[in-house]
Specification:
The structure is a single chain. This protein is mainly α. The chain has helices spanning 9-15, 17-37, 46-95, 101-126, 139-144, 151-154, 157-161, 167-174, 179-197, 202-227, 232-257, 261-264, 272-293, 306-320.
């Protein structure tokens, strides 16, 4: 997530420079052919360019709206995880019926730390790279990674889980496929055991199970966004329309500017290049921005800051336990928080 007022041009222009080069190539070649070799048939009326431009604007607007909705839904889901985690924390802390305060705190800590393990396993699962994601397949995205680090790619899940789980639980969790789901299952089994011992009363047990159910719901919503890409038919048609428009824009400008040759001279044809670059760049960047918003967990600079959110939850719950040795909050790198 970018927390500055806007992307600076010295970041944004390099990120989109491939689009500038593409439009330069698409505009210089037909302009040179028209100017030096008198290929007048390259000049086309502006009407078909405008019609395709209108269709492209509609499909680009639709795509960007839908990809933004995916990102905003992901943020709402993690907002619900924050609320459910805090609720789970106070319910666990205040539902244990144990006279020995030391034992009560130790049991509370076990349940809290297992929840931290769930948050850790979930964020590692969400940062796994899928075949349709762009962060590692596009050169401009890979280049932009120099401005920030993705913590889940820089560390190991086993090392991250070690402070939160017993050795036995850690070995079991690492042997499973959906580790986050299994951690909630272990949590539920532990609560059931405490209920049978009378440590958690029936009413409180049901309430805590409902909290686990809510966490399962939020995890499932995250997995739905992670494992179901923005429909490829809409993504493809936006790509095709945009590139078709960018191919025709210089030809349309040649057609319009050729009408001014007699009055202003042959040089005016070369205005096709800057005008085409500007207009084409706008449409290509709209397509690239939609692409960068499609997958809000993939590790891009515009992702939901799930690492920061997980750390803030950990800090909140540790303070509920009365701990003072708290982990530091996640700090931005070049105004980007992961």
């Amino acid at each position: 997530m970018n927390i500055s007022t806007h992307y600076k041009l010295f970041h944004f222009i390099p990120w989109t420079r491939d689009k500038v080069f593409k439009m330069l190539l698409l505009s210089v070649i037909p302009t040179a052919l028209f100017y030096f070799f008198d290929l007048t048939w390259l000049a086309i009326p502006w009407v078909p360019v405008a019609l395709i431009g209108t269709a492209t604007a509609f499909i680009s607007g639709f795509r960007n709206t839908q990809t933004y909705n995916r990102t905003w839904e992901a943020r709402q889901i993690y907002g619900a995880i924050i609320n459910s985690s805090r609720s789970f924390g106070i319910m666990v802390r205040d539902s244990l019926h144990i006279t020995d305060k030391t034992e009560e705190k130790a049991l509370c800590k076990t349940l809290f730390y297992r929840h931290f393990a769930w948050l850790t396993a979930l964020r590692f699962q969400l940062r796994e790279t899928k075949s349709w994601e762009y962060i590692k397949t596009r050169s401009y995205n890979r280049e932009y990674l120099k401005y920030y680090k993705v913590p889940e790619w820089e560390s190991n899940l086993a090392d991250e889980l070690r402070p939160f789980l017993s050795d036995e639980e850690q070995r079991y969790i690492l042997s499973t496929k959906n580790r986050a789901a299994q951690l909630l299952a272990i949590q539920s089994d532990h609560l059931k055991t405490l209920n049978r011992r009378g440590v958690i009363l029936d009413y409180n047990f049901v309430a805590l199970e409902n909290q686990l159910k809510d966490l399962y719901d939020q995890q499932g919503k995250c997995e739905r966004i992670k494992n179901f890409p923005y429909p490829r038919q809409f993504s493809s048609i936006n790509l095709y329309f945009t590139h078709a428009l960018c191919f025709l824009i210089p030809l349309g400008f040649i057609g319009e500017l050729s009408k001014l040759v007699e009055k202003n001279g042959d040089w005016i044809i070369w205005l096709t290049v800057p005008l085409s670059v500007i207009v084409g760049w706008i449409f290509l960047v709209l397509e690239q921005i939609g692409e960068s918003t499609e997958n809000p967990f993939e590790g891009g600079a515009n992702d939901i800051p799930i690492t920061q959110i997980s750390r803030n939850i950990e800090i909140d719950l540790k303070e509920m336990l009365g701990e003072t040795d708290l982990p530091p909050a996640i700090q931005p790198q070049n105004n980007i928080i992961m």
